Amino acid sequence: MAMWQGAMDNRGFQQGSFSSFQNSSSDEDLMDIPTTAMDFSMRDDVPPLDREVGEDKSYNGGGIGYSNRIMDFLEEPIPGVGTYDDFNTIDWVREKSRDRDRHREITNKSKESTWALIHSVSDAFSGWLLMLLIGLLSGSLAGLIDISAHWMTDLKEGICTGGFWFNHEHCCWNSDHVTFEERDKCPEWNSWSQLIISTDEGAFAYIVNYFMYVLWALLFAFLAVSLVKVFAPYACGSGIPEIKTILSGFIIRGYLGKWTLVIKTITLVLAVSSGLSLGKEGPLVHVACCCGNILCHCFNKYRKNEAKRREVSYYFPLKTLWRSFFAALVAAFTLRSINPFGNSRLVLFYVEFHTPWHLFELVPFILLGIFGGLWGALFIRTNIAWCRKRKTTQLGKYPVIEVLVVTAITAILAFPNEYTRMSTSELISELFNDCGLLDSSKLCDYENRFNTSKGGELPDRPAGVGVYSAMWQLALTLILKIVITIFTFGMKIPSGLFIPSMAVGAIAGRLLGVGMEQLAYYHQEWTIFNSWCSQGADCITPGLYAMVGAAACLGGVTRMTVSLVVIMFELTGGLEYIVPLMAAAMTSKWVADALGREGIYDAHIRLNGYPFLEAKEEFAHKTLAMDVMKPRRNDPLLTVLTQDSMTVEDVETIISETTYSGFPVVVSRESQRLVGFVLRRDLIISIENARKKQDGVVSTSIIYFTEHSPPLPPYTPPTLKLRNILDLSPFTVTDLTPMEIVVDIFRKLGLRQCLVTHNGRLLGIITKKDVLKHIAQMANQDPDSILFN
């Protein structure tokens, strides 16, 4: 039957006691929900005989000398009514209306007593308290993850004998035998070859260190994928596609639960430490959302309203902006107190370039933007193709083997190259670095052909042997990062994409920057240089090119522009380089959009079939609501409930024979005049509760949704009033409404369905899933792909 479907069809509905609905009403629960047909057989379906009525004065049915009493048990709210099943879309309009009613009731009661006034003040303050707790918890977890990942990454190469809890850098900080040129070497830090065979020299020592590096990487990866598979399957991936879908109103129970938070935090450290080409910034968004969701359950204001927990999505009032700012402030303060980077700064890659950029350099910056766009489009297409292969073949059944194979390949290829062996964050920091006189890195191995340096600035110098060696190693690193990231992102472990994308761009930018620097040094007389670059001046900063390249590649993958530039400010502190960053980001987006409209997260949303309406895309097709609504022509009639003529048995039969998430209520089947809309879940809970708690409610009891009971003949069982669960103002459109307007309404109001009428008569229904299928069909895509998988 062509009737209403929710964002996901409910395959049958749950059997058992009413407590089963209560148990699945929290987002902390796991997703396993048994779905079987409900058994409506009740022992009290037959009204008692007259003599039984006389013996049992508590019977409320219509017997001789007894009036027909109305069962309006919904005068007090029933737990579970108004909640949602798993894999369904929330009703934004209803949730916001309920929140306004709650706020209005608290405000009115605050004038009655001092206690009510205190309750009103605490309710208003609870939002700020929640933001404080979220900031403290998120900042603490971020610091813990960063410190732990740094220590475990260094553990692959050796251990600190002065204290095993110290990483390599901290171990040598306290040493008295460290030289400035070899600040990373100290007697307290021992490689595995020194611990096992007591020497760090020779081929055998190299093989031992190589073996231990690969072994630790495999161990970390195995622990990460095993914990995810066994305890929290939702802890894999970056989480951003799912977070966007949840914020749009979709319910995925357990995705933001406590088990997911614990396992994601632990496995994120293990995954990053394994040396795989992934980052922790994307998964940290998931971690922060888990913190917010769990802490929301401490406050009734948020626990009982799905929209309040998602008001950063469609609804973003000014007070939410200020509270978000406050939460970020608390998280930053907490992170600064922990000082995970060891430099008393909040930014991950602090930069301090001494030379301003020149207008001519916009040309290579734009070239980096083009490279970033090409890389982004290539990565999205190849990664989505690989993830689709993983989902549709036997490969997806062996996540542990896949992770171990990719980890082994990555570790074996990474160890010989010092730039792939180090963590990706350290690599980016090295590439962003502006070389000084005291830098011992190979990237700063220039020939010093000068006597003095003005203002602390070093002039452009010819590259030395170390620089040329580093260029070859970086070129090989670039190839490995481009290829291995395609297969890494999307595996069943926590995996972010920010850091790998930035690494690809930073390597390309540093290579181009060094090339421009040497070109300016050896060909200073060229017209493009002599007007602004004088002999012996510091003209080109390769580190700036690395930063711009990182922004370009990140923009090509995610299609971010303004937010990307802000993120780069946060990561580097380089506020004065806004123009180069914006030029590269915009160029990257234009090039990538020319090759494909979707960013990586939108592509994964479509791949998984999540019911997400992208607000940025325009719908320009000339179709009408009647072209999309159900039922279509030649389809069976829409299944509806009547307002006062159906029995409990009639409603239970409809529920058991259909899988729809709700039903329109009409005056009668003949008139089809719309009265309202009732959710399937609310019907089930209400009828089951009435059968358990009210005597006399039987299968022949009349259910009505009107204010007053319909006239009934004598000797009829008690009626059941369900008006309180009826939505009396469902959103409606006419059959001639353009779909362009309908799509816009769904996006801006966050609707889960709207009813289609003609002159007040009900014709059909359009759900969010129908809209998504229609958009896919108009874009020549498979409409059946819009199904949560």
From TrEMBL:
UniProt keyword annotations, A-Z: Antiport, ATP-binding, CBS domain, Cell membrane, Chloride, Endosome, Golgi apparatus, Ion transport, Membrane, Nucleotide-binding, Repeat, Transmembrane, Transmembrane helix, Transport, Ubl conjugation
Coiled coil: none
Family annotation (InterPro entries): CBS_dom, CBS_dom_sf, Cl-channel_core, Cl_channel-5, ClC
Molecular function terms, GO-annotated: antiporter activity; ATP binding; voltage-gated chloride channel activity
Location(s) in or outside the cell: Cell membrane; Endosome membrane; Golgi apparatus membrane; Membrane
Catalytic activity: 2 chloride(in) + H(+)(out) = 2 chloride(out) + H(+)(in)
Membrane topology reported for the UniProt record: Multi-pass membrane protein
Annotated ranges, domain CBS: 629-693, 725-785
Protein family according to the UniProt entry: Belongs to the chloride channel (TC 2.A.49) family. ClC-5/CLCN5 subfamily.
Functional summary from the UniProt entry: Proton-coupled chloride transporter. Functions as antiport system and exchanges chloride ions against protons. Important for normal acidification of the endosome lumen. May play an important role in renal tubular function. The CLC channel family contains both chloride channels and proton-coupled anion transporters that exchange chloride or another anion for protons. The absence of conserved gating glutamate residues is typical for family members that function as channels.
Name of the protein: Chloride channel protein
Biological classification of the source: Eukaryota, Metazoa, Chordata, Craniata, Vertebrata
